[in-house]
Amino acid sequence: MQVGIDMGVVSGGASAKLDIEELLATRLLVQGNSGSGKSHLLRRLLEQSAPWVQQVVIDPEGDFVTLSDRFGHVVVDGERSEAELTGIAARIRQHRVSCVLTLEGLEIDQQMRAAAAFLNGLFDADREFWYPVLVVVDEAQMFAPSVAGEVSEDARKMSLGAMTNLMCRGRKRGLAGVIATQRLAKLAKNVAAEASNFLMGRTFLDIDMARAADLLGMDRRQAEMFRDLKRGNFVALGPALSRRPLPIVIGPVETSARSSSPKLMPMPEAPADVEDLIFTPDPEEFNRPMVRRAPPAPRLTTDILAELSRSAPAAVAAAEPKASAPEMSEEEKETRLVAVLAEILADSESAFRSDAVLYQEFLVRARMRRIAGSPMPLSEFRRRVAITRSGVDEETAAGEAWAGALDLCTRVSEDLQGVFLLLACAAIRNEACPSDARLARAYGTHSARRARRLLGYFEEQGVVVVHTDFSGKRIVAFPDIGAETSPGDANAPDGTEQLAAE
Question: Domain named AAA+ ATPase: which ranges (predicted)?
């Protein structure tokens, strides 16, 4: 079925049509500097095509969440684990629900990881759910950068790989990529090259104008026209739009973004006592909780020294005979490893650092303690951290119920095992169910709302049953090991950290 949606008008007043069916097969690239109307174009496209095709929007600034009020898009908060996002994406495809993944408030590294996990979940869906989906990625240069930036290398590779799969291999799985970028020069070429439709807006840099002209098959001398385009004016080319470069003025939209361009406002009249207003503190300020920012972990110097010690010149190493390391029994090695692990976890800020960061600190301290032999692998380190954070004692650890809990925890992802074992330990001891704040700290977050979502995930995996008593207190039961917690107040404070429920 051929469906042409109205994107605006062309010169002469005729309607500018975009063939949705053709777009699903050929993909779209939108380029324009900030303020050129790029987000307005995407909103027009989404609104016009909403009745005809399922939509998924990767939204780094939270501008498109307003689509939910008018068109029923489900808003997915990016502040979730990678396993959660992958599972949600799979169910999005299964039930054919349009959604907006909002990444607002996350650091760029976290945004890239969340987007990669979600896109991979869409890509890896079962073949029976390969229905057509329009996947719109705003600010695509963030998720498919042409060069390495300040983000970690593994996050960049994850995000770039997911974007490459979307644009290069997504068509056979029903995924049609619509990517928008401020600068073509910052977008990975193998991602941009897979688009067959283009909408080019205002841009000023020579390198971007030249590349836009090349993509549209225009002469380099015509590239100057991109400087003169007004807001909302684009040049279209592609099988879904026009066989020749065609100027288009994007039409109006029904919904609006939460953010807007700044407008000039007259300054208020300055009161006579302005200095008193500024320098006199408000009494309420002293009642507000003080936000303590953790100082950076003093690891970098140690890491540099350890790196230098490992990379000694070969000539020096050959000249000096290597001293044999003293023999160390397995018991002594285990004692030192336990001591190093205890030192790291004794830091109150360790709960809010990633396992990868803690693991690097563990390796450095292990070398400083002269612990011989191969280092503990990351998977074993994560397991030991999870067990330590659960607070299990020797008597409980020696029981069959705890052995069953360790077997059960393999059914959840590694980053959630600490929370799972904390609940299991409380259930085996028949202690009060940990509060949301306590679960959040065990997960390494300040969000109590995310802790509640973890309980829902455990229930989906079939490893726990969550219910309440007559007073509304929470109980978590583990049917496989025959244990459950005593009733506990979900809103009780943690006692060690003041966690804010969202």
Answer: 24-310
Q: Which amino acid is at 461?
A: Q
Q: Determine the Cα–Cα distance for residues 350 and 261; give it in Å rounded to an integer.
A: 40
Instruction: Using the Cα atoms of residue 139, residue 142, residue 146 and residue 147 in order, give the sign of their dihedral.
Output: positive
| Secondary structure (3-state) at 280 | coil
State residue 218 phi and psi, 5-degree precision. -100, 160
Q: Can you state the angle between helices 153-164 and 108-123, rounded to 10 degrees? A: 40
In the chain the domains, ranked by start, together with CATH numbers, are 4-250 (3.40.50.300), 298-306+329-376 (no CATH), 393-502 (1.10.10)
DSSP letters spanning 201-257: -----HHHHHHHHHHTT--GGGGGGGGSPPTTEEEEEETTTEEEEEEEEE---SS--
**Distance of alpha carbon 326 from alpha carbon 113, whole angstroms:** 43
Count of CB atoms situated within 10 Å of the CB of 357? 13
pTM of the model: 0.55
pLDDT digits (tens, 9 = 90+) for 383-410: 778 787 777 888 888 888 888 888 888 8
